[in-house]
Amino acid sequence: MISRHIIGPKYCNRVTVKQIARYLTGPGNAPKLPSRLAFAFDIDGVLIRGKNVLPAAKEALSILDGNNKLGLKIPFILLTNGGGESEEERCRKLSSQLGVQIHPEQFIQAHTVLKSVVRNYADVPVLVLGGKGDTLRRVAEGYGFQKVYNTLDILAWNPSIWPFHDLTQEERASVKPTDFSKIQFGAIFVFHDPRNWALDIQIMCDVIQSRGIIGGPDESNHARKPVDLVFCNPDLIWRSDFEAPRMGQGAFKVAFQAVFQASFSLTGSTYPHVQFGKPTEATYEFAETMLKHRLQGVPKPSLYMVGDNPESDIAGANAAGWKSILVRTGVYDPHHGPPSHQPTHQAEDVAEAVRWALEQENCS
Ligand code: G3P
Ligand code: MG
């Protein structure tokens, strides 16, 4: 007979007696109740702004670490449209900033989902955009891409391709010397936010125009397969520690498509592309698999997304059938009217969001 006094009068989500029996750790120990709920936290504007940890972040993570009425450890993942370095490196930095251990198995950033498509491009020359220097080359190679180049490699090969940027010493030291007249690119991946939009847009148009061989003839009409184009983060804006939101990778995409359409497209249309990142279905499917793995097979779990951007965090969670909580510490500003996507709940900050969710699940 499971004594009710151990688990208190209210079950967290009415866990069955059988499940509790399975998790009891022995006489006198607090039972390890299986959590029926899990969280996905956005990072920028929810936990962190720029280099600063938001005040409510540590309180929220402490509640999930068992500092709640049932002593329940509640699983969570971090789901960000950010990127620019390896998952391992970003988790190391986040663990230090947040004061809790964040593991790569609970972390998804904009380009993480590319791990699921790399098999189609493993030995194809690909152009990787974004990030600092050649950091993302190493990240892409870590995913399994074997022929990875960036726009600095191309500028080092032929400086006249964009005469308005002189490579710094540090940039020159990071390039992979290559004769690009002998390389046919199969795809362009915008992993993270480009640092030199003009250089990158020029080279994207060159690669697309020539169907992969920079400086080659205009092959727009050629039967050869067009170059694939993949973006990993649709955010037009995001919240750093500046007073107003900053332009995101989505703004870069608008700039590229405007230039391509005006100057290079033979049909006057934008260039077809694949979009990953929140709110896309692929990214939320990837996240739901990770969340359910952390819930150890608990049936019909309650999944909560806490985010600051209605366009990415709330829209994606709603479409995925999760519960969504919009916080007012990032992109969303209630003075600008109602959110473009209606969340399940609005909260001042991430700690209030977590407390509200636990109340909904009878866990507080
Ligand atoms: O580049 C990061 C930005 O687009 C938003 O990041 O953490 O709010 O999804 P996050
Ligand atoms: Mg955000």
Characterization of the model:
This protein is α/β, with parallel strands linked by helices and 364 residues long. It has two domains: 4-110 and 279-360, HAD superfamily/HAD-like (Rossmann fold), CATH 3.40.50.1000; 118-275, Rossmann fold (3-Layer(aba) Sandwich). Helices cover 33% and strands 13% of the residues. The strands form four sheets. Strands 5-4-1-13-14-15 form a six-stranded parallel beta sheet, sandwiched between helices. Strand 2 (48-49) and strand 3 form a beta hairpin. Helix 3 packs parallel to helix 12 and helix 8 packs across helix 9 (249-264). The longest helix has 16 residues, at 249-264. The radius of gyration is 23 Å and the shape is elongated.
Characterize the biggest β-sheet: 6 strands, parallel
Q: CATH topology of the largest domain, which one?
A: Rossmann fold
Counting DSSP E segments of at least 2 residues, the number of strands comes to 15
Bound heterogens, unique: SN-glycerol-3-phosphate, magnesium ion
Report the end-to-end length measured between terminal Cα atoms.
24 Å
Strand ordering within the main sheet: 5-4-1-13-14-15
Structural class: alpha/beta
Average of pLDDT: 90
**What is the global morphology?**
elongated
Oligomer: single chain
Q: Which series of helices and strands comes N to C?
A: HHEEEHEHEEHEHHEHEEEHEHEHEEH
Number of helix segments? 12
Which consecutive residue ranges, at least 5 long each, have pLDDT under 50?
1-31
Percent range for helical residues? 25-40%
Q: Rg to the nearest angstrom? A: 23 Å
Tell me the count of domains.
2
Going by CATH, what is the homologous superfamily of the largest domain?
HAD superfamily/HAD-like
CATH architecture annotation of the largest domain: 3-Layer(aba) Sandwich
